[in-house]
């Protein structure tokens, strides 16, 4: 785990360093963050050695909050970030008890024996999976909860992360050439609040084929995850998809083998029906 003690960027949720810390970033990864109000304070610190290329930020003004947590934190279902050490300690540190459910040993309704301490309890069917399967890019729980509360590590060649215009295009890395192995891209589309979003996949759709889309896949969901479409993979295009919301996330994940051409999609803001 990176401690970010030498050169780092810190984002605060307000006008100064006394505000809550949204994230501390160093190395080669950055998770998008949003303030909860109209102000964010950024602090950039370097030490007396080892110079690097630095960073370029995209700043977007939106009514929708993109919530992620630094790698040392746990993302609660209500959007709060708490220390990983607070998980399963018997206290409701999140405020919605999400730090004490799901990832903790439990006894499901009906008296069925729960999972081991080394396992994660899938909330819907109460199946047990190894905790090392959490956030590995594969949906091992039937409800995808093992891939929800994850710190986003954005691959370096995903390009622009947030789209706020009423029309635009998103492609897999390297398109129309093959994408790379072990990609993880998150693209947020946030259009004006009185509009909805329509996606249309263009050209050739070409991801690794698998009946359950366990290897390379696309998932698309609303900001509150009440709408989830996917996973999509193989050579059959999802075609045109409509979302009755103004904020969606497109997630693209690949495994460590067999890269393919990928995809190109167009998004358009449309009038809500």
TrEMBL record:
SUPFAM superfamilies reported in the protein's UniProt record: LDL receptor-like module, Spermadhesin, CUB domain
InterPro entries reported in the protein's UniProt record: CUB_dom (IPR000859), LDL_receptor-like_sf (IPR036055), LDLR_class-A_CS (IPR023415), LDrepeatLR_classA_rpt (IPR002172), Sperma_CUB_dom_sf (IPR035914)
Domain of life from the UniProt record: Eukaryota
Record Pfam families: CUB (PF00431), Ldl_recept_a (PF00057)
Lyase listed as a keyword: no
Segments forming domain CUB: 1-62, 158-270
Keywords per UniProt: Disulfide bond, Repeat
Intrachain disulfide bonds: 69-81, 76-94, 135-150, 158-185
Protein name (record): CUB domain-containing protein
């Amino acid at each position: 785990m990176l401690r970010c003690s030498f050169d780092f960027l810190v984002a605060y949720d307000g006008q100064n360093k006394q505000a809550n810390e949204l994230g501390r970033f160093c190395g080669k990864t950055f998770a998008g963050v949003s303030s909860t109000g109209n102000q964010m304070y950024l602090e950039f610190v370097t030490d007396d050695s080892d110079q690097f290329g630095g960073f370029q930020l995209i700043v977007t003004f939106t009514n929708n909050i993109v919530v992620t947590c630094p790698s040392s934190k746990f993302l609660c279902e209500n959007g709060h970030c708490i220390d990983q050490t607070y998980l399963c300690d018997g206290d409701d540190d999140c405020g919605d008890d999400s730090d004490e459910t799901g990832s903790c040993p439990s006894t499901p309704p009906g008296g069925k024996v729960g999972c081991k301490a080394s396992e994660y309890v899938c909330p819907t069917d109460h199946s047990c999976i190894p905790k090392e399967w959490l956030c590995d890019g594969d949906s091992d729980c039937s409800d995808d909860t093992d891939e929800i509360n994850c710190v986003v590590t954005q691959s370096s060649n995903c390009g622009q992360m947030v789209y706020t215009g009423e029309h635009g295009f998103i492609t897999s890395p390297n398109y129309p050439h093959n994408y790379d192995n072990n990609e993880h891209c998150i693209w947020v589309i946030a259009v004006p609040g009185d509009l909805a979003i329509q996606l249309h996949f263009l050209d050739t759709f070409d991801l690794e084929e698998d009946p359950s889309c366990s290897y390379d896949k696309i998932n698309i969901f609303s900001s509150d995850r009440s709408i989830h479409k996917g996973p999509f993979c193989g050579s059959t295009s999802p075609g045109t998809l409509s979302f009755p919301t103004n904020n969606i996330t497109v997630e693209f994940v690949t495994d460590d083998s067999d890269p393919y051409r990928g995809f190109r999609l167009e998004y358009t803001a449309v009038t809500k029906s």
